[in-house]
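Same chain as my last thread, 237 residues:
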Amino acid sequence: MKYLKSLSLAALAALAVLAVIGASAASASHPKFEPTGTAFPIPFTGHGLHGVLEGTDTHQTTCKSSTVSGNITSAITAQNIVVKFHGCTAFFGFVACNTAGQPSGTVVTTPLDATLVYLETGTNKKGLLLQPENKEEHFATLECGGTSIKVIGTVLAELTEVNEKEYVIHFRKLSNHHPSPALYLNPSTCGHLITTESLHATGTGGFTPFATTPAGLEGTGTLTLTKEVKITGNGCV
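reply #2:
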């Protein structure tokens, strides 16, 4: 009996050690922004994205291009991100859209936060989870020919490194009106898939073709940093 009791205690001790090692490994594997010889914040700019706001199969708002600005503020976060879309139209391109106070065809997001995460599409694929800095704010608001549209929720983008000052950000096309990717790995535990509060839009007035419909961004853009930054992390293990 003493032998069995000792063996049980040893097994429990071994499991405790393995748990500590496992927790350390998971923590170390988190994706991180690592500046080269500098400190945060690190400003960046971007361009190239186009936007698609899904309505029905025949009604969409599309934007031809965009500019982006923001700051990487820590190992896993970026803040004060603003995306400005240009050439935005709806109703088969016949009606221009804009955010209040902006020129015709220009839609601007509210200031956004971003968190560096691993995507569900592969544990070593890194992404940015974008959401309004003020959680009470909308992702963006716009008007198209008398229809007022509010875009709400969060969006995931895949992030890949070209070099230490240039990155590619990629939003995937909606699949059957569902955003993709829609899942990411918990950045605190390096596990447990979390579902985003996917972008969706509501519209009032005008033709009202956007009443509670999925929304999304699609396309590929380039982010240029003012200083060199590596993204480290080999995936959750």
